[in-house]
């Protein structure tokens, strides 16, 4: 039985990762045919970094990912604090509304955002509204739930009296947030920001509907590439993207693990407050 | 005594239409140790939070030094709080926790470190400066919470069940320590607890609360010896509470007999509640007793025995150092100062009857202690 479980796990891992491994190998091969590994070379990577089209697009994607994830983190954290303070019924309604975009098919979100932007563009009498701003708004929109969902649990774990204690010691409510609440929920904020960054960096579906000729992101351009035979430098690009995202994920896991380890040293009052929460 | 510092006038508080505080009037003097005592949901924590500025009363006035402070936010009040679960800042070490208030007040660094040093000294936390607060024991966290509040030199320190999470022995030590600190600094302490013994040991003034109302305000001796109504008599210590009728001034009638007492000023033949503390009752041979009854139960409590005696169907609790066998027919004597008369109140008939007392009941509650403790903690959070 145990052997079977093990074999099953290995099988699943193979299914999950073999495409990436093949891609990685292909990026290191000198030929264009994925099926044949000719000889080891880093030429594909060299070519990628000399590419005058792809590199600026990569920069576009990174700029968009950084700015949208930062803004989403700020807005999402503020929203989480607000939701946390709501009373039971209102809170559950707001949470449902927040979660819908998560389950909504991306293509529906993309099309509806495109319609909205087109409508606004018409109202503003501009012909071409699609560009960086529309991409930014769209990315913030789909990033928000991830930030809210990673910050809220941190707020719930926090001692409810912490910000009161800060105010008791002379903090205004704003000071209390920055000096006491924010350091406490930082792990949640960071993981929300990282998650947003990765979601934004590799988003294709939604971006496809709201991008304009003035600002094209890498995933959108890559989609255009796939209509023609793929060049090996694209394999190199994919491999790099995969590695970047993998590193971000590993970083997130390390941060979370560290946070859990800190929480392990639970003091008795915490257990009681947990029981209380479970009871109510 | 010294002058008035805080006054609550006709303060009421309602949450979602439910009245938590019902027209409270309370006056707190400078440098006194005042305790708000009552069961869960009696409004004691709410009263404290109103004084701290965390809640605004639905109606009524809060005065501090004669100035109305209803709308003054907590960070502008000369009041500091020791929270129930300490609420220490986990991302700061002991020193930075204590220095927090002074840093907000932008105190120059040399004076700051001197004052934090004083606090570390007073609370016995020297050497713990760089410890993370979550590596401390309950008692140490408690001290940090006290130091963090007192370092700001408030006029009033509010303490919300500060010893609730500590074990019994530590709690006793901290009680003495808190009293010492209060006397040393000479500032007002307002202390919230549900533990009557704690209230009696530490306070100058005890405010007994129930159902959002103040039941009695007085010194610990007053509330113990002269309870205002059946609730106070039962909540503080053990009490036998018997229906009686005032026959005349200094004379009360119960069990068909007249007893001399020390109370007067009641209407002619006014029905009253008679309180007799179990430790005040003297056991004598049956033929020498004012009243006679049969021992139905006896439990060893260490210092004394809890003896349940049946007087014509009404069971009394008597505490005595002498053993009485079950079934023994005994007499009791009551001196005038053992008898305390209270006016009838809404609480009459609800307390002070030991008919349901049995050793079996004791055992059941013993085995449930762990569960009960947790539940209690849960309940006491308002």
Structure description:
Chain A has 280 residues and is an all-alpha fold. Chain A has 2 domains: 1-41, no CATH class; 53-279, MetI-like fold, CATH 1.10.3720. Chain A has 12 helices and no strands. The longest helix of chain A has 33 residues, at 232-264. Chain A is globular. Chain A starts with a helix and ends with a helix. With 382 residues, chain B is an alpha+beta fold. Chain B has 2 domains: 4-225, 3-Layer(aba) Sandwich (Rossmann fold); 238-379, OB fold (Dihydrolipoamide Acetyltransferase, E2P) (Beta Barrel). Chain B is built from 10 helices and 20 strands. Chain B has helices at residues 44-52, 94-104, 109-122, 138-150, 168-185, 196-202, 220-225, 230-235, 359-367, 369-380; strands spanning 4-15, 18-29, 33-37, 59-64, 67-68, 79-82, 156-160, 188-193, 205-210, 213-218, 240-248, 251-254, 257-260, 271-276, 282-285, 291-300, 305-311, 314-320, 329-333, 339-343. In chain B, α2 packs parallel to α4. The model of chain B is unreliable at 358-382 (pLDDT under 50). Chains A and B meet through α7, α8 and α12 of A and β6, α2, α4 and α10 of B.
- Average pLDDT of chain B, rounded to a whole number, is 86
Low-confidence stretches of chain B: 358-382
What kind of sheet is the major sheet of chain A?
A: none
Largest sheet of chain B: 6 strands, mixed
The CATH superfamily of the largest domain in chain A turns out to be: MetI-like
Q: Give the fraction of residues assigned to helices of chain B.
A: 25-40%
- What is the tally of helical segments of chain B? 10
Text of the CATH class of the largest domain in chain B: Alpha Beta
End-to-end separation of chain A in angstroms reads 42 Å
Q: Compute the number of strand runs of chain B.
A: 20
The arrangement of helices and strands of chain B along the chain is EEEHEEEHHHEHEHEEHHEEEEEEEEEEHH
CATH architect. name of the largest domain in chain A: Orthogonal Bundle
Helix content of chain A: over 70%
Query: Which structural class fits the helix and strand makeup of chain A?
Result: mainly alpha
The rough form of chain A would be described as globular
State the domain count of chain A.
2
Sum up the overall morphology of chain B in one term. Answer: elongated
């Amino acid at each position: 039985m145990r052997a079977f479980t093990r074999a099953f796990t290995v099988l699943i891992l193979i299914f999950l990762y073999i495409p990436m491994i093949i891609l990685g190998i292909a990026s290191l091969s000198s030929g264009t045919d994925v099926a044949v590994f000719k000889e080891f070379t880093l030429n594909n990577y060299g070519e990628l970094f000399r590419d005058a089209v792809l590199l600026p697009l990569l920069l576009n994607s990174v700029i968009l990912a950084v700015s949208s994830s930062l803004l989403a983190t700020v807005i999402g954290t503020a929203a989480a604090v607000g939701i946390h303070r709501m009373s039971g019924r209102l809170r559950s309604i707001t949470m449902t509304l927040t979660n819908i975009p998560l389950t909504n098919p991306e293509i529906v979100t993309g099309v509806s955002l495109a319609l909205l932007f087109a409508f606004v563009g018409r109202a503003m009498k501009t012909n071409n509204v699609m560009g960086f701003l529309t991409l930014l708004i769209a990315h913030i929109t789909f990033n928000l739930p991830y930030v809210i969902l990673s910050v809220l649990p941190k707020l719930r774990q926090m001692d409810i009296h912490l910000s009161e204690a800060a105010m008791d010691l002379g903090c205004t409510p704003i000071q209390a947030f920055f000096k006491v609440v924010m350091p406490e929920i930082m792990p949640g904020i960071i993981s929300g920001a990282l998650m947003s960054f990765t979601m934004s960096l590799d988003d294709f579906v939604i971006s496809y509907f709201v991008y304009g000729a003035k600002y094209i992101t890498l995933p959108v351009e890559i989609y255009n590439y796939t209509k023609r035979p793929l060049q090996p430098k694209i394999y190199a690009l994919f491999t790099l993207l995969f590695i970047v995202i993998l590193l971000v994920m590993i970083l997130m896991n390390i941060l979370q693990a560290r946070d859990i380890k800190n929480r392990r040293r639970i003091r008795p009052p915490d257990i009681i407050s947990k029981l209380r929460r479970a009871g109510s | 005594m010294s002058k008035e510092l805080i006054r609550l006038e006709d303060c009421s508080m309602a949450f979602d239409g439910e009245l938590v505080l019902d027209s409270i009037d309370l006056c707190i003097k400078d440098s006194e140790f005042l305790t708000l005592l009552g069961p869960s949901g009696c409004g004691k924590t709410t009263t404290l939070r109103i004084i701290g500025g965390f809640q605004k009363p639905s109606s009524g006035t809060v005065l501090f030094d004669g100035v109305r402070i209803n709308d003054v936010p907590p960070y502008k009040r000369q009041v500091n709080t020791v929270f129930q679960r300490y609420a220490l800042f986990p991302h700061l070490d002991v020193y930075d926790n204590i220095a927090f208030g002074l840093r907000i007040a932008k105190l120059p660094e040399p004076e700051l470190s001197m004052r934090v040093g004083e606090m570390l000294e007073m609370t016995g936390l020297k050497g713990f400066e760089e410890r993370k607060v979550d590596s401390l024991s309950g008692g140490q966290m408690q001290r940090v919470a006290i130091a963090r509040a007192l370092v700001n030199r408030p006029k009033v320190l509010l303490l919300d069940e500060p010893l609730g999470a500590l074990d019994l022995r530590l709690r006793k030590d901290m009680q003495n320590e808190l009293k010492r600190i209060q006397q040393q600094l000479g500032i007002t302490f307002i202390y919230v607890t549900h533990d009557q013994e704690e209230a009696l040991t530490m306070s100058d003034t005890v405010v007994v609360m129930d159902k959002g109302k103040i039941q009695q305000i007085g010194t610990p001796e007053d509330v113990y010896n002269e309870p205002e109504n059946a609730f106070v008599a039962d909540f503080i210590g053990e009490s036998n509470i018997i229906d009686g009728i005032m026959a005349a001034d200094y004379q009360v009638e119960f069990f068909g007999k007249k007893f001399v007492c020390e109370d007067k000023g009641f209407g002619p033949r006014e029905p009253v509640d008679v309180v007799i503390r179990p430790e005040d009752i003297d056991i004598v041979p049956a033929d020498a007793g004012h009243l006679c009854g049969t021992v139905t139960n006896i439990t060893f409590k260490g210092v004394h025995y809890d003896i349940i005696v049946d007087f014509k169907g009404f069971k009394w609790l008597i505490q005595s150092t002498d053993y009485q066998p079950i079934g023994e027919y005994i007499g009791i004597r009551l001196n005038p100062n053992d008898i305390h008369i209270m006016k009838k109140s809404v609480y009459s008939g609800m307390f002070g009857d030991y008919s349901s007392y049995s050793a079996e009941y004791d055992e059941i509650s013993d085995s449930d202690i762990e569960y009960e403790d947790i539940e209690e903690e849960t309940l006491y959070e308002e």
